[in-house]
Structures are given as C-alpha cells and as structure tokens.
Amino acid sequence: MPIPQTLTIRRPDDWHVHLRDGAMLQACAVHTARQFARAIIMPNLVPPVTKVAEASAYRDRIRAAVPSDLKFEPLMTCYLTDGADPVELARGKKEGVWVAAKLYPAHATTNSAHGVTSMDQVAKGLEAMEKAGMPLLVHGEVTDPDVDLFDREAVFLDKVLFPLLKRHPGLKIVLEHITTREGVAFVEAHPDRMGGTITPHHLNYNRNAIFKGGIRPHFYCLPIAKREEHRLALRRAATSGNPAFFLGTDTAPHSTDTKECACGCAGIFNAPVAMQVYAQVFAEEGRLDNLEAFASLNGPRFYDLPPNEEKVTLRAAPLDVPETVEVPGLSKTITVFRPDTPVGWSF
Ligand code: NCD
Ligand code: ZN
C-alpha cells in the first residue's frame, strides 16, 4: 500500500509528561500543548507533589504557562511516598484534582529520593485508590544495586508488580515507559487491569545508539533503552491496535549542560517531535491505520475519559523542528530529541 501524504486523526493526548516548574515550565509547556489536548503530569518536582493543594496550585501554574490560544488540560498525579495518606488520596480524587498516583521506587530515577522503599509502606494508600477507582502509574524498575541496569524492568515485574496485582485486586495499573518484551508480555497478560505506555525514543533506537562512536547523553534516559529484540517487541505492541498500549512520551527536559557532563541527567526532551516520530514508526511498520488508536483512543478508554473531538493532520514532509529550545529565565538551552534515522512526518 502506498504511504498516504497526510494523516488526519483525533487530537492525541500524552499520558506521561514531565513539565517541571518555574523557568523550565515556561519554556516547555507550549511544546506539549501544541501537540496534545491533555497530559498526565508527573509529580517529581523538588519537593514532590504529595498534597491536593500542591497539585492544584501546580495545575494553575501549568495553565498559566500555556499560551491562551492553545487548549490544554493538565491531569494531575500524586507522588507516593512511604506512609502515603489514604485520606489525601481519596479526597483529591473526589475533588477532581488527582487523576492517578505515581509510584517511584526510591532512587530509581531523576528526583525519586522521596520514592517508596517497600510496597508495605503504601498498602493503605493503594487500598484507598482501589476504592476510589484511581489508577496507579508505576516506574517499573527495581533499585537493587546488585541487579544489572538492563535487567531492572524485567526483575520488577516478577518481584514487585505481580505481587502488587494480587495484593490489590481492584487496582488498575499503568506500566509506564515499557522498554522490554517482558514488559509487553506482562501488560498483554493482564488486559482488564493494566495499561502500558510507550515512548517515541524507545520505539526509535536500541541501546547501541547510546554508545555509537562515543557516549551520547541525549539518548540517555531511564529506563535505559534495551537490545534490539526489545525495541521490536515495543514496536509490535504499539502498532498492534491492542487497546492496552497507549502514548506516553516521557518527555523529561534537562538543560543541555546538565546532560553533557561527567554525570549527566537521565531524561529526553521529545515534546516538539513526539507525534512526528510516532508517525514515522507506524509508517515504517505499515500500521498508520492504528496510530489514532494508540495516540488518541486507547488512553482515554483506560482512564474512562471521552476521546478528543478535535482533529489534527500530520503531513509526510521532513522533520522541521529546531534542535534546541531556549530557557530564557535560566539563560540555558534544552536539546530536542533527534532520531539518528530520518523522520518523514511533520505536525
Ligand atoms: C525522568 C525525569 O527526568 O524526571 N527521567 C527519565 O529518564 N525518564 C524521570 C523518569 O520518568 O524516570
Ligand atoms: Zn517519566
């Protein structure tokens, strides 16, 4: 079948975004809001967003950072800490502030020092979420230093996620930014309770890219990209039309200087190129017909929200996006994710 020159779909949503705060938020919010109608906002600020009032104030700051001609709805999440308060979780959901709560194993990734040290510590909170119908979003990696970095997702599934599903039978869970075939299989095995998000970068390259001809900090994020067989499993899952898989960019801006240094930060800023890269992947797989399900239908279905009515059109044309975004408030730049392979879609 010839590849179409344009593709019109319902406006997509992004089910996993880091918008940061302050000057970074001012610089980044517009890029997510240009592409997506709604986004699940990660709560890993410093300090993390754990209270309803903090989330509500953060939502106001996000709305104020988005230009008024763009319609954008931030969907807020609660950062789970040891002893997470069941009352605060239930109240925030009832008041329409929390859409979900986020589980970071302590020290798994950027700004996760306040994360959870054991599932016993959040059992009461998770019970409240089960009752309130509030999904749990998980960063699915163990943090045991004895487990190899590339195995941390697969080990998490057996050691943490499977017991968690059994212990909290009413809880809906999203395995976020899946990077392994084991993660894909796990979500497929629990279709009525689980969703899985997949990033544009994990669909685009495998772990070789991080070391190609030298160390490439702009391909470094967590969970780290795995072997090619895993990338292929992610591509099959994302483009399959299976409603359990949906779009989550994990756009995670860090200024260029904090990535290009001796101990560079984990996180990839892909917001300006996200839909273009996803479209490229679906076109390469011959599954452009499933892009709308992945980007615009499966996520709302999981969260019990209506899909967006507005339509957007992608065009077959070379990627046309600046390589960096300025952060005027900090006199810094953020480097935009740039695949190593051609992207033939514009948005
Ligand atoms: C994220 C960040 O920078 O906040 N980094 C990343 O590599 N993805 C945190 C996260 O989602 O793990
Ligand atoms: Zn993230």
How does this model look, in words?
With 347 residues, this protein is of the alpha/beta class. It has one domain (6-346): TIM Barrel (Alpha-Beta Barrel), CATH 3.20.20.140. It has eleven helices and 13 strands. The chain has helices spanning 22-35, 52-65, 86-94, 123-132, 152-167, 181-189, 200-204, 228-239, 256-259, 274-284, 291-303, and strands at 6-10, 14-17, 38-41, 73-79, 98-103, 136-138, 173-175, 194-198, 245-247, 311-316, 324-327, 332-335, 345-346. The strands form three sheets. Strands 2-3-4-5-6-7-8-9 form an eight-stranded parallel β-sheet. Strands 1-10-13 form a three-stranded antiparallel β-sheet, covered by helices on one side. Helix 4 links the parallel strand 5 and strand 6 (136-138). Helix 3 packs parallel to helix 4. It is globular.
Could you give a short description of this structure?
With 347 residues, the protein is an alpha/beta fold. Helix content is 34%, strand content 16%. Helix 3 (86-94) runs parallel beside helix 4 (123-132).
CATH architecture: Alpha-Beta Barrel
Q: Radius of gyration from the CA trace?
A: 19 Å
Number of beta strands: 13
Low-confidence stretches: none
- Give the count of structural domains: 1
Determine the fraction of residues in helical runs and give it as a percent range: 25-40%
What order do the helices and strands follow?
EEHEHEHEHEHEHEHHEHHHEEEE
If you consult CATH, what is the topology? TIM Barrel
Could you say which small molecules are bound to this protein? N-carbamoyl-L-aspartate, zinc ion
> How far apart lie the N and C ends?
22 Å
Q: What is the overall silhouette?
A: globular
Largest sheet: 8 strands, parallel
Q: Beta-strand level of the residues, as a percent range? A: 15-25%
- CATH superfamily label: Metal-dependent hydrolases
Top CATH class: Alpha Beta
